[in-house]
Amino acid sequence: MYRNDWYRHHDCGNFLHALLGECWQPELLIQLGGLPPETAATAFCPAASPQPDFVPLKDLLDAYPAAGTIFRRLPEPDGLPPILALLGQERELEALEALLALCLRRIDSLRPGVIKGLLLCLSERLLRLPLSSADAVRPYLRLCRELHMTITCSGNFIPKLPALCFRARAQAFRIADREEMALFDLLIGTLNVCNTPRHNDPRLHAIMLRGRRQLESLRKPDLFETAAPYLGILAFLEGDYDQAMSIFTRVSRKLRAQERHLFELFYVRHWSFAAANCGDFDLAASLLLSRLRQSSIRNDMSLTRSLRSQLASLYLRTGKSDKALEQLDIALSDITEQADITSMVTTVRHLACYHMREGHADAAYHVLQNVLHKAAQRGFQRPTYLNGMVLELLEALHDRGFPPLPCYDFPQELQRCLNGPNRLLRGVALRLHGKQLAAAGQTAQAIEACRHSITLLDALHDALEAGKSRLLLHEAWAVYPYLKHHFWPESLLPLIPRYLREGQDQAVSERSLLAAYREHFAPQRLRTSFESFLPILLTESAQILGAEHSCLFLQSHPSAPLRQLASQDSSAVGPELSIPSTLDEIAGIVAEDSPLLLDNLGGGSGARVILAGILVDCRPYGIYVLCHMGSFREEIRPMLSEDLLRDIGRILAWSCTTVLETEQSVLRNAPLPEGHQELVCASPEMRRFLEDIDIVAGTDASILLNGESGVGKEMLARRIHEKSGRSGRLVTINMASLQDDLFESEFFGHENGSFTGAISSKIGLVELAENGTLFLDELTEASPRVQAKLLRVLQERTFLRVGGTHPININFRLVAASNRHMKEAVRQGRFRADLYYRVAVIYLKIPPLRERRQDILPLARYYLHYFANRHARPCVQDFSDENRQLLERWPWPGNIRELRNVVEQSVILSGGRTLFFHENILDDDTPAVPQEAPSAVPPAIPARLSSLEEMEKAHIAAVLAHTAWRIDGKGGALTILKISRSALYAKIRKYGLSRNA
Predict the structure, then answer these.
(1) Whole-model pTM?
(2) Are the beta carbons of 65 and 10 closer than 8 angstroms?
(3) CA–CA distance, 758 with 571 (Å, rounded to integer)
(4) CA-CA distance, 162 to 313, in Å (whole number)?
(5) In this predicted model, what pLDDT tens digit does every residue of 253-262 receive, in sequence order?
(6) DSSP symbols for 69-89
(7) Are 361 and 397 a contacting pair, CB within 8 Å?
(8) What is the DSSP-derived secondary structure letter of residue 770?
(9) Cα–Cα distance between 362 and 371 in angstroms, integer?
(10) Disulfide: which of 231, 550, 702, 804 matches 841 by Cβ 3.0-4.6 Å?
């Protein structure tokens, strides 16, 4: 009777009400049970009566026997009925697992309130689920990990999540499963980024570090893959953003392939957080925009709101308040606290930050107080935050004397961040603590706190937050233009020149204008790379003069063509500029002679447009030309002259030269990177080869290095660069790693707005090699499309950025490398002949290690002491006689790389005493020696006619000697003899053959 309308039965309704508790609602039956919407009115809904927190399943079935009978007879289509059938059979763990799987399959169509109700129910049932046997523990642990991931990625506040994680860890300890214990230690640490009151807790982080140590001790690659999401969170909290982004990239791609969009979005969002924290705002924005388009296509409103809220946060951090407000308006348009309190709290926090930055502190407080009050009523405590913007907002409201906010207490939050594991929040908290100490008159302690903040944030490569900390140490120049409209304390205004302050109508003279340039480009501002200094130069020089458009050109040496390095448009309102097509010619005139001033370029528009060309002579590093266009400040126009521009050019030349000299000094004194050791050689073959390298290094001819894998092609390319005398850098590009669809953007760079996500211009890899060396490794792996584009830039030495219209001339030395036979690739049509002749002006074949055996022992001794120092291991002074013989006899198919790995393994495991040349390591795993393998090896001809067995024995012995007892692989004994492994070993035993015979 009740197979199709079971939901109308009195016992079924009471059973589900008792099972789900506060999460009970008829909508659950409609959305999960696949029932038609009109059943909401007819589905049995028991009277609201107080229910105990938890009732065991057996007690429920005893209390409502009819429900158990009906559930056991239900059909098993997809949906809720098979879950109810499992409950009727007292298989609660399987039922809960099926319920979570159903929730994840339909999560795009479920309301946030329904999702949270299900997660609350699942966490409550799992927390108190009896586990009668050890066999039930492992599926229980897997389900707990899946539920934790779902709660974390959905952002829901589930109060009992920490208790569930600790109970699961205790169960793993009960069955002595070290792998699960390590995973749950790491999982517990991820609570620091969840919506739990304990987020950013050092005790949770200590447990997470214990899990990582346990994971490393187990040494299981599959376990590391399972733990990758947790390890990414660990790297994020500790500020290792490069490692975090690498892990999040791998995890998000895996989840995307599995179509687990909710989980993928969580890690993409943290990938974006990590990119923004280390200053790559372009990548952070492009990640969010791409996922925003995908979630809009799927009509996933909850995920779309989360993405828009984070995008607004990113825009606020980069000073784009209008774009931030646009995203916030869209995100808040259809959100209610009943539907999605988590997204509402996050979005309104960012709206409060917007109001505060616009100077509306009252509005910021009231909108934040309202939403936090609603969150507190629904049991929400301490909504999580991962960057310093929320902490700065709480500090600003606290300093202005507003009453305490629900959910947050600023003094407590500050102490949590000072002691917490999130290093970025700790750096921000140190700065805010320094401000408090300064206000209390504790100057020495304030300076110490700020210096600690700067050190910590510089180590994280977060230039924006580190710049804010420098405000309190009178180093305001780098950040004032970006922060003066936001959180700029009035007490710090004396740090800024009066000429630059807003609302100051000071008389401007040539002297004060030059003083502003000297102050803006003072020595303490120049502790940066030249690449980072360029936007500062363009932006701040334009601000001083009041120009709307800026361009910087470079002439690297007197005979070199002029090329554009960077350009920038100011956001200030001004006349619409028409950039003259002859701007590069005008810059060329400036480079040849002196500064240039052109007026009345507005044409018939009626607006006065001025062009100022400033000569910045930085020889021997090159001649730069800075061009400003625009209306300029009204008080500055009358004093503009070529003499004034010449004086400005001298100040800028000193600043640019200082930055360039500092950068060159850092490059010269920097420690050598991995693999950058002095070349070690003793053989006459390699000495002659290096002499050839040194001869051709002083020319500009293109060089093609050909050699097997592991012979040291990149080290030789670096030697060529160092001997070339070029002042630029060595730029290494692995052609196998460049995707075709991203090649132009990565190789040539792109202009602002050239494609979706291109927020600003980007210099390409080839442009980084200006006046240096461009090393193209694995050149034969380039696709035909990439080869065609390479040919043009190598022939013409000119290219266009993606979206650019002005050709860029480039001066570099080309070195290419390949481990394949280039001529054979040309004959087979896999490589262009014209490109081959372009790159192989000088062809150098690197001898493999087996052809220069005199180098083996010197290299091995070098790596012996190198790795002993690197790993801090006690080690022998030299190899034993037996090990030296083994080293010299081995064919080294992997060349220097294989030798390096063998010695490193020996140092780590035995201090250099044992080389671990076992067949199960080298015979099975070592790649074959690339050589022309003969079809057969002729046996030694005996002096007399021998029997068949004697000839077979001699032939097998000769083959084994020829292959150095290598059994498998290309060039191995099995390949030559064409017999099975078991047959070969049987004959070796039969004839008594051995390696040492």
Answers:
(1) 0.51
(2) no
(3) 17
(4) 28
(5) 888 888 888 8
(6) HHHHT----SSSHHHHHHHHT
(7) yes
(8) T
(9) 15
(10) 702
